[in-house]
TrEMBL record:
GO BP of this protein: DNA-templated transcription
InterPro entries on file: LysR-type_TF_proteobact-type (IPR058163), LysR_HTH_N (IPR000847), LysR_subst-bd (IPR005119), WH-like_DNA-bd_sf (IPR036388), WH_DNA-bd_sf (IPR036390)
Protein name (record): D-malate degradation protein R
Domain of life: Bacteria
DNA-binding recorded as keyword: yes
Record family assignment: Belongs to the LysR transcriptional regulatory family.
PROSITE patterns, A to Z: HTH_LYSR (PS50931)
Lineage of the organism: Bacteria, Pseudomonadati, Pseudomonadota, Alphaproteobacteria, Hyphomicrobiales
Family matches, as Pfam families: HTH_1 (PF00126), LysR_substrate (PF03466)
Keyword annotations of the record: DNA-binding, Transcription, Transcription regulation
Length: 293
C-alpha cells in the first residue's frame, strides 16, 4: 500500500516536471523519489508518467490521479489544521476579488510576509470595481465596500468607512471651490462609468439627487484617484482610499457631510460552504491586520 509521503512525492514530480527538481523541493534523495513513484505505479497498476531523459510528463491516468490526490491532500491538511494549532503552511489555490485600491493600498503590503508563511499557496487576485458574484465567477472570497444586499454569503466587517467628495487644490483654485450642493452640478467630475447620479443633502438636510457632468470616465478606482490628483475633476471616493492624499494635502475634502448615506463599511465576504475554509480564514486574518494598520 502507498503512503501520504508517496502521494506528496507524486504531486511534486507532477508539478515540477522531474525527479531531481521534486527531490530538491521535498528535501529527499532522487533515489527515494524514484522509489516512491515506482511504488505508486506498481500498487495502482498504471503508468503515471511519460518519461524521457529530462522530464516526467503525466499520462491521462496520471492527470486524473493528480486532480484527485491534490484535493485529498488539501482536505487532509485542512483537517489537521482544524484540530491542531493552525500554524502549518497552507497549500493549494485561493481566488480573491476586491477593488483595486484595497489590493494596492491594504493587501499588497501584507503579502510578502503571508507568502513567506505559506509558500505553497498560490493566490489569484481579481481586482475590479464591479460587483463580482462569487460562485458564478469561481471566487473563494471577496472584500467589498458599502451596504450589502441580503444573501447566503457570510459577511464580516473589517472596518468602518465613508464616502466623500474630494478634489485637488489646483482644480479648486482654477475652477472655484463649490460652496453648496448646487455648485456641484456644473463642476467637472472624474468618475467610474456607473457613477452618473448621486444623492446629497441640501442646506436644509433634505435628500436631493443630481446627475454629474462627467469630464473624464475611468475604469478603476486607482485611476479615479489619479485623475482627481491631476485636477481632472471632483471625485467621490472612500475616505480610506485617499487618506494619504488627504494627509499630504494633494486632495482636499469638498462640502463635508453633503453626501446622503455616506457610510461605506468594508466587509470580508465568503460562502459558508466554501471548501477553502482554512485558506479563506487565513486570508481574512491578513485582511483584518491590513485594515488595523
Amino acid at each position: 500500500m502507498y503512503s501520504i509521503p508517496d502521494l506528496q512525492t507524486f504531486v511534486s514530480v507532477a508539478k515540477t516536471g522531474g525527479i531531481t527538481s521534486a527531490a530538491r523541493h521535498l528535501g529527499i534523495s532522487t533515489a527515494t523519489t524514484s522509489h516512491r513513484i515506482a511504488k505508486l505505479e506498481r500498487v495502482l497498476k498504471v503508468t503515471l508518467f511519460h518519461r524521457n531523459s529530462r522530464t516526467f510528463r503525466l499520462t491521462d491516468e496520471g492527470q486524473v490521479f493528480l486532480e484527485r490526490v491534490d484535493t485529498v491532500l488539501e482536505d487532509l491538511q485542512q483537517a489537521e489544521l482544524d484540530v491542531g494549532s493552525g500554524t502549518a503552511s497552507l497549500r493549494g489555490h485561493l481566488r480573491v476579488t476586491m477593488s483595486p485600491w484595497i489590493l494596492s493600498r491594504f493587501i499588497m503590503p501584507e503579502m510578502r510576509e503571508f507568502r513567506e508563511h505559506h509558500p505553497d499557496l498560490t493566490i489569484e487576485f481579481l481586482a475590479v470595481d464591479r460587483f463580482v458574484p462569487l460562485v458564478e465567477e469561481g471566487q473563494d472570497c471577496a472584500i467589498r465596500v458599502g451596504q450589502l444586499d441580503d444573501s447566503s454569503l457570510v459577511a464580516q466587517k473589517l472596518s468602518d468607512n465613508e464616502r466623500i467628495i474630494c478634489a485637488s487644490p489646483d482644480l479648486l483654485s482654477s475652477s472655484g471651490d463649490p460652496k453648496s450642493v448646487e455648485d456641484l452640478k456644473d463642476a467637472p467630475w472624474v468618475c467610474l462609468p456607473w457613477q452618473t447620479r448621486f444623492d446629497v443633502n441640501d442646506a436644509r438636510g433634505r435628500k436631493r439627487s443630481f446627475s454629474v457632468g462627467r469630464s473624464v470616465a475611468v475604469s478603476n478606482s486607482d485611476m479615479l484617484t489619479a485623475g482627481a490628483v491631476e485636477g481632472l475633476g471632483l471625485a467621490i471616493k472612500s475616505r480610506m482610499a485617499v487618506k494619504d492624499e488627504l494627509d499630504k494635502g494633494i486632495l482636499v475634502e469638498i462640502l463635508p457631510g453633503c453626501l446622503h448615506s455616506p457610510e461605506a463599511p468594508v466587509w470580508f465576504v465568503f460562502a459558508p460552504e466554501s471548501r477553502t475554509g482554512r485558506k479563506t480564514k487565513a486570508f481574512r486574518d491578513v485582511a483584518r491586520r491590513s485594515f488595523r494598520r
